[in-house]
Amino acid sequence: MATIHLEIAGRVQGVGFRWFARQQARRLGIDGWAVNTRAGTVEIVAKGEPEALRQLEAAMAQGPSGAIVKSVTELAAIAEDEIPDGFEVR
User: Fold this and answer.
1) What is the CATH number of the domain that holds 42?
2) Residue 63: inside a domain, yes or no?
3) How many domains does the chain divide into?
4) Domain presence at residue 15
5) In the chain, N or C terminus with fewer CB closer than 10 Å?
6) What is the pLDDT of residue 64?
7) Structure confidence by residue, pLDDT tens digits, 31-89
8) Is 58 within a domain?
9) pTM of the shown model
């Protein structure tokens, strides 16, 4: 297993981005969460197989229709044991 911690910036709130992330994560068998930040970004924490995480990151760079992704930034890693099973929208 591997982990990723991403911050997605652009028009990513109010467009269903977190639910899109959950749908993609579940499809790929990834655990973690997505949360809106006060800065207007979406933060994603995920654990799974490396190839599945690459696919999730690629999907986050596109986003759902209505989103305009300006950047995807990798943040400091989160320990695998701190990431719950399943994928939550927080």
Assistant:
1) 3.30.70.100
2) no
3) 1
4) yes
5) C
6) 97
7) 999 999 999 999 999 999 999 999 999 999 999 999 999 999 999 999 999 999 999 99
8) no
9) 0.94
Q: Kindly name the residue from 11, 27, 36, 54 that is annotated as catalytic.
A: 36
The residue range of the domain holding 21 is 1-46+68-81
As given in the structure block, the two tokens for residue 20 are: 């899109």
Q: What is the SS3 assignment for the chain?
A: CEEEEEEEEEECCCCCHHHHHHHHHHHHCCEEEEEECCCCCEEEEEEECHHHHHHHHHHHHHCCCCCEEEEEEECCCCCHHHCCCCEEEC
* Model pLDDT, residue 50: 97
Annotation says 36 is catalytic: yes
Residue 22 appears among annotated catalytic residues: no
The residue behind tokens 């986003």 is 63
